[in-house]
Amino acid sequence: MSNKQDGVTTTASQAIRQDGLGQAQPPHAPSPDHTPTEASRSIHPDEAVPAHWGRYLVAPRPFGEGITSEILQDLITFLEEDTDGLILDHIDLPSRTGGESHRRCPPIVVVAMPDSRAQALASNPRLIVERDQPLLHTDVPMPAALGIVEPAHAPFLADCGEINVHVVGPNAVPVEEAHIWAVGTTGTTHAVTGRDGRAQLKLSADLPATIRTLHVRPAQGYWPARIDRPFQTGTGGETTISLLSLVDTFRGFPDEPLTGWGIQAMRLDRLPASHRGSGARVALLDAGVSTSHPDLKDIVTKGRDFTTAPERDTWRIDATGRGTWCAGIIAAADNGTGITGIAPEAEIHALKLFPKGRVSDLLRALDHCTTERIDIAQINITYQMPSQLVSWKILDLATAGTVTIAPAGDTPVTLFHTAALPGVLSVGALTRSDQGLRPAPYSPIATDLHAPGTDLITTGHLGGYTAASGTALAAAHITSLAALLLTGHRQLRSHINCGTRVHHLHTLLLTASRPRHPQHTYRLPDAYTAFTDYPTEPVSRAPGY
Cβ atoms within 10 A of the Cβ of 88, count? Predict the structure, then answer.
């Protein structure tokens, strides 16, 4: 790539050099931990990186005549000559975009280097330098959630003891693989029940009497539970928690199919049976999907684990359960039992990014969505600090025709970084009560849309069915409706231009979500309205436009 300045044509690499980096920051001497060799001019494995170095994303800042693949080689050549850094990988431009002139995100090089060297590169106005952050399943650190600013200031008692919990179902049947959290005044401890339904939670800074709540989340078959002040007498001992089974709640389930309350709340059950999402390609960017589940084994047949070698099929293993929950809401098989997904004929791609994933893996997954012509990408993970590169990549994805949806996050304080990006539809969760629907207490209010997200029956990652909650499940409802609209709405199908299609879908969802009551603070899409009342004018606020 070349750029003209004052009548002189320079390559991008020369422009980077001429911007004064070499004068403002002399080239570093070789690090004592790294002797430059010919091998340093190729991509290095993570194991070759000195422990005190950081991982960074380095990219040319877009300028002049646009972005081409040639600039990547110029940048690699520039970085290869630096003795204080190792190139770990590079992310070129995807093969399918709206044309080079429409690309916002430049090619990126993943580099390991000392923090001081990264700071020197970041001072060059021609470069963008960001940390290659770890991806997070949630953005709420537990100490912050408990109001503890500095965990080291919390007391530590040498002999706090432990609490013993026995989780059972009807007829005292032990509940295996149930997650238990004990929330105290100074911290939280966690354990998982064994085959006998028992778990022991060791306390570090609390006594049994100071435990505020016990939270139990079974893996399948039962409703979750919350017990307030479980040890008011001050003694630990063993406390037994009895869970209510799903079978006792829904007569005939799972042999008899169940229609979820979320489907009814969005009036999805009012749509013709022919609306099944056939032909829609949906990508779930999460921790994998358990494809061994009978309702998913023939539905989720494509995927990739971006945290390991591409040929491995570890994307079929769900590390957290959430990807399987969302897959069930969207596309669980219509086999006459259990649950049926809202768009059961959609094609689901499971893109695994957690655990061990980084922002560079997210960028690659987004490129994968472009090349695989994904219609809807639901991003369930986040990261700690804002990323300009991810923001640009999302906008490029929209230009290529992919709708991006993200859960708002399970804290009422702030949005996931991914949900706050331009071009992304952010989704909060609703819960229901005798007074009707309302935003869930864990969900942010300031989102583009809200959808059912509490106590939803869906597929469990260990088999069977589970009652799950969270803004990711709310986002799965919006993803499902988007799949139905893209494949069954006459006006949307007629928009050949990819970017126009994305814009019209945003407008349609927002228009069909106008508050039903002046006091409502949320936008819940009405599926029947979305299909019958196509807006003649765009709404005032469509994400990213």
Answer: 19
Rounded CA separation 533/491 (Å):
11
CA dist list (Å): 296 to 37, 319, 329, 443, 459: 49, 16, 11, 28, 8
CB 453 within 8 A of CB 430: yes
| Contact criterion met (CB below 8 Å) for 25 and 116 | no
Residue pLDDT, tens place only, 200-252? 998 877 888 888 999 999 999 999 999 998 887 655 578 999 999 999 999 99
Map residue 539 onto helix, strand or coil: coil
**Separation between Cα atoms, residue 215 and residue 223, nearest integer Å:** 11
- Name the region of 203 (left: φ>0; alpha: ψ -120 to 50; beta: rest): beta
Give the Å distances, CA to CA, from 25 to 48, 117, 121.
25, 9, 9
Cα 31 to Cα 110, 116, 122: the distances in Å are 19, 12, 19
* Geometric angle at alpha carbon 68, from 67 and 73, rounded to 5°: 115
| Each residue's pLDDT tens digit, 438-469 | 999 999 988 999 999 999 999 999 999 999 99
111: its two tokens: 């580099």
pTM: 0.88
Is 424:506 a contact under the CB 8 Å cutoff?
no
Buried-state track 138-163, b at ≥16 Cβ within 10 A, e below 16: bbeeebeebebeeeeebeeeeebeeb
Question: Which domains occur in the chain, in start order?
Answer: 2-131 (no CATH), 142-248 (2.60.40.1120), 272-532 (3.40.50.200)
- Among 254, 343, 331, which residue's Cα sits nearest to residue 299? 331
Task: Retrieve residue 174's tokens.
Answer: 């032990």
Helix extents (H) in 56-169: 70-80, 115-122, 142-145
Cβ atoms of 165 and 215 within 8 Å: the answer is no
Helix (H) or strand (E) holding 379: strand 376-379
310-341 burial, b at 16+ Cβ within 10 Å, e below that, comes to: eeeeebbbbbbbbbbbbbbbbbbbbeebbbbb
**How far apart (Å, rounded) are the C-alpha atoms in residues 434 and 450?**
19
Q: Could you give the CA distance from residue 75 to residue 167 in angstroms, rounded to a whole number?
A: 57
Which residues are bridge partners to 64 per DSSP? none
Q: E-strand spans in 434-511? A: 436-439, 449-452, 456-459, 465-468
Do residues 437 and 524 touch, judged by C-beta distance below 8 A? Answer: yes
